[in-house]
Write a structure and sequence with these properties.
Layout: E1 15-17, E2 20-25, E3 31-33, H1 34-47, E4 48-54, E5 60-64, H2 70-78, E6 94-96, H3 111-122, E7 136-139, E8 153-160, E9 163-170, E10 180-187, H4 191-215, H5 225-232, H6 234-245, E11 270-273, E12 279-284, E13 290-292, H7 293-306, E14 310-313, E15 319-325, H8 329-338, E16 352-354, H9 368-382, E17 391-394, E18 408-414, E19 417-427, E20 430-438, H10 442-456, H11 463-468, H12 472-485
Parallel strand pairs: 6-7, 7-8, 16-17, 17-18
Antiparallel strand pairs: 1-2, 2-5, 3-14, 4-5, 4-13, 8-9, 9-10, 11-12, 12-15, 14-15, 18-19, 19-20
Bound molecules: iron/sulfur cluster (SF4).
Length: 486
C-alpha cells in the first residue's frame, strides 16, 4: 500500500493535497508509451478524478481518492512506470530535451544516457537516502535546450575537435536557479563513471549529515546537493570526486557559456521535420499541463497508430507525438484539434504556467488554475497573439510552477487579488506593475496590456523587451485610462 506522508511525492510515497492524494510518476526523459498511458487512464478513471497533469520536470501527476493499493503499485512496476526498487523511485528525476534523438541540429542523442542512469539507480538501493529532489539532466545540444532547467547535475554536449564531450554544470545557486558550468569537460565515454562518482560523494555527505542528526537526536531531512556544494565548496567536492575516479577532472579546457535563445522556448510546438528523413513530430499545447483521461488515451492511440508508439512530455508541460510519416501529419493534427487541443505556439495556453492554487495547496491565496483559465479563454475569444506570451500564476511567493523569469507574473496576495509583475526585475518575478489587483479584472487587464504591446512595439521586439523598456508608472496610468473607457 502506498504511504502518504511525502513532502515531494513519488508513487510509493504520495502527498495528501487539498484535492486528493497526489502521486508523481517519474518518467525518465519524459517518455511514456501508449501501453503505459492505457494503464494510467484506467487508474485515474477508476480511483481518481479522470485527469492527469504534466509537471515542469516532464513527469506525470495523478490525483486519487484513496492511497494506491499494493496491486496497483505492482501493475505500475510491471509496466515500467515505477521503479522495481521502491526506495529509489523518487530519484528517477532524469531530464533530456524532448527532441533528443530527433532534432537535426543536436550533437548527440542523450536518451541512452538517461536509460543508463535509470538502470544505475535501479541497481543501487543504497542511494535511497538521497533527497528525492536529486535531479540529473543530459542536454544533447538540441534547439529545444534544457540546460537552463533547474537540475542538480547537468551534462551539456559540446563538440571539441570533432569529438563529442559533455560540459559539466552544477546547481550552485538557490532553489529554482539554472545550473552553472564548472569548467569541466568530460569525454562522452566517461560521462556515466563521472556521474557515479559525483553521486557517491553526495551520498557519503548525506550519510554523514544524517548520522550527525541521529547522534544528536534531531530529526533531519536529506540535504540537497546545493547544500553540500555550499558546505564543501566546488574545490573540495572535486577533490573527493577525483579521489574516487583516480583521475583529474580539472586539467580540461574552459568552455564558453551556452547562450540561450529564449525565443526558441516554445519552438517545440507545431509541426517539425525530424532528423530522420520523411518523419515529423507534432508539439501539442496542453492547457496548464492537464489532460482528461480521454484526451490522454486518444493521444496515446495516435502515437501508436501513426507515430513511434510513445508520447514525449516536456518541461513546459506540453507534449510531442513523434515519428509521424509526412502523409499522416494532417490526420494526426486534425484529431488533436478535435480533442479541443491546439498545436500553435501562439495559442494563449501555450506559455501559461500555473501552480495548483487553492484547490490543491494549503499555502495558496488564490485559485490560480481557474484564474489562468479565465484569462486564456478570454484571450482566445478576443485577440490573436503573434508571439508566445509567458504568464506565470503563483498562489504564493514560492513560485512552484515556474522557476525562471516570465513575461507576466501574477502572484496571489489574498483570496481575490494578485500582485502583478512584468519582465525582468530586481526580484525573480520581475518589476511590480500593481501591488493589489482584483482577480476578476485580470482578463481585461491582460487583453489591454497585450494590445498596447502589439500597437506600440518595435519590429521583432518581444513582450519582455517591450516591458523592460517601459516606465511602469506611465504604463499603469495608460492601462487605467484604457480600461475605464473600454
Ligand atoms: S506556489 Fe505556493 S500556492 Fe502554489 S503550489 Fe507552491 S506553495 Fe502552493
Amino acid at each position: 500500500m502506498q504511504s502518504t506522508n511525502a513532502i515531494c511525492p513519488s508513487l510509493f510515497n504520495a502527498t495528501i493535497a487539498q484535492d486528493g492524494i497526489l502521486s508523481r510518476i517519474h518518467l525518465p526523459a519524459g517518455l511514456i508509451t501508449s501501453t503505459q498511458c492505457q494503464l494510467i487512464t484506467q487508474v485515474v478513471n477508476q480511483f481518481g478524478n479522470g485527469e492527469v497533469q504534466i509537471t515542469n520536470r516532464a513527469n506525470l501527476q495523478i490525483r486519487t481518492n484513496l492511497a494506491l493499493s499494493k496491486e496497483i503499485l505492482l501493475d505500475l512496476q510491471d509496466y515500467g512506470l515505477a521503479s522495481s526498487c521502491a526506495n529509489t523511485d523518487g530519484l528517477r528525476n532524469i531530464m533530456t530535451s524532448p527532441t533528443a534523438g530527433i532534432d537535426p541540429q543536436a550533437k548527440i542523442n542523450t536518451i541512452s544516457l538517461a536509460k543508463q542512469w535509470n538502470l544505475y539507480l535501479l541497481n543501487h538501493p543504497e542511494l535511497e537516502i538521497l533527497s528525492n529532489k536529486f535531479s540529473v539532466c543530459f542536454d544533447g545540444g538540441e534547439v529545444i535546450s534544457v540546460s537552463d532547467r533547474p537540475n542538480d547535475i547537468c551534462f551539456v554536449a559540446v563538440e571539441v575537435d570533432g569529438e563529442i564531450h559533455f560540459s559539466l554544470y552544477l546547481g550552485l545557486g538557490d532553489r529554482g536557479e539554472s545550473p552553472l558550468p564548472v569548467n569541466v569537460l568530460i569525454p562522452h565515454h566517461q560521462v556515466m563513471e563521472v556521474l557515479e562518482a559525483l553521486t557517491e560523494v553526495y551520498r557519503d555527505y548525506t550519510a554523514k549529515r544524517l548520522n550527525q542528526s541521529f547522534a544528536n537526536k534531531l530529526r533531519s531531512r536529506p540535504p540537497r546537493l546545493r547544500e553540500m556544494l555550499s558546505d564543501y565548496g566546488v574545490q573540495k567536492f572535486f577533490d573527493l570526486v577525483e579521489n574516487k575516479l583516480q583521475y583529474s577532472l580539472r586539467n580540461l579546457s574552459l568552455m564558453p557559456l551556452i547562450q540561450e535563445d529564449r525565443t526558441k522556448k516554445y519552438a517545440h510546438l507545431g509541426i517539425h521535420a525530424q532528423k530522420q528523413s520523411g518523419l515529423f513530430y507534432v508539439g501539442v499545447v496542453v492547457p496548464l499541463g492537464r489532460l482528461t483521461s480521454h484526451q490522454l488515451e486518444r493521444l496515446a492511440n495516435l502515437a501508436k497508430q501513426h507515430g513511434g508508439g510513445a508520447l514525449r512530455l516536456t518541461p513546459w508541460q506540453n507534449l510531442l507525438i513523434t515519428d509521424i510519416a509526412e502523409a499522416d501529419v494532417e490526420a494526426v493534427t486534425q484529431e488533436i484539434l478535435e480533442l479541443g487541443l491546439s498545436i500553435s505556439a501562439n495559442h494563449p495556453y501555450a506559455a501559461i504556467a500555473a501552480c495548483s492554487g487553492s484547490n490543491g495547496c494549503k499555502s495558496a491565496h488564490t485559485n490560480t488554475q481557474s484564474d489562468a483559465r479565465a484569462i486564456a479563454s478570454h484571450l482566445e475569444k478576443c485577440m490573436q497573439l503573434d508571439y508566445p506570451i509567458n504568464l506565470h500564476f503563483s498562489g504564493c511567493d514560492k513560485s512552484c510552477a515556474q522557476h525562471h523569469p516570465s513575461d507576466i507574473a501574477l502572484v496571489g496576495k489574498d483570496f481575490a487579488t494578485y500582485k502583478i509583475y512584468l519582465g525582468d526585475g530586481e526580484i525573480d518575478f520581475g518589476r511590480e506593475l500593481y501591488g493589489d489587483y482584483r482577480a476578476d479584472d485580470l482578463p481585461m487587464l491582460v487583453e489591454q496590456l497585450l494590445t498596447i504591446y502589439q500597437n506600440q512595439r518595435q519590429p521583432k521586439q518581444s513582450f519582455r523587451e517591450f516591458v523592460n523598456h517601459c516606465d511602469l508608472q506611465e504604463l499603469a496610468n495608460t492601462l487605467g485610462e484604457v480600461i475605464r473607457h473600454a
